[in-house]
Amino acid sequence: MLKDTKIAIIGCGNLGTSIVNGLLELEGFQPQHLHVTKRNPSSLFYLQDKGIRVHSDNLIAAKEADLVILGVKPFNVNAILREIKPVLDPEKQVVVSLATGVTLDEMFEVLDPKTTAFRAMPNIAAEIGESVTCITARNNKEEAEVKVKALFESIGFSITIDENLMEAATVLGACGIAYVLRFIRAMIQGGIQIGFDAKTASTIVNQTVKGAAELMIQKNMHPEEAIDKVTTPKGCTIVGLNEMEHQGFSAAMVRGVLASYEKIEKT
Asked: Which residue ranges does the record assign to the Pyrroline-5-carboxylate reductase catalytic N-terminal domain (predicted)?
């Protein structure tokens, strides 16, 4: 689907680089069709060896692209849109913003009203091709959506949602990675306290978390259904779970999710 699609990633930082790596893994994708820009592009020059066009000229990148991806910070989105608007063709090109909290309404303060525009929220697991990316669009066309979904499925999995859920998606999908990592760290610390060295504890916990996630995905189970399979009467699992709940584990997690969401809403 992206074989002949020309793509520009403007403001190619860590997330943009992850997308580049995903695109390079796609069968038939032509690296010479990809522009990546950065104010100081020297850190991206290694990509030139793969045939990718690396430079700092956003106008050239946008003019030659079918998909224009904005990887810049939220406060720079509309400035970049104003910069590239003179070369954008609203009938042919698609604009995709990766910026947290910048609404489509805000983007269309600059964009031509006929432009097909997307917001997308991947997470850092894009680096290993395991991101979940939530996307939403305005003036959507079937061909454009197919291409945008193909782009983000090169770095994991994508799902289409209503725009009013994009901030919530940021919390669950992007902030959520940090929540899970904090849980993993705590599990490892507990493992060390009961006798394991840090490396062994990390190996056990990482695989346990991975296995739990795969169980939910492959069996399409509710977490409580799986928990019931692990807990036995008077067993050590239910004792541990009950102690965590007494200490406010689930409530703390929910409060953390809500606090992150409220922060985005106020920004």
From this structure: 6-100
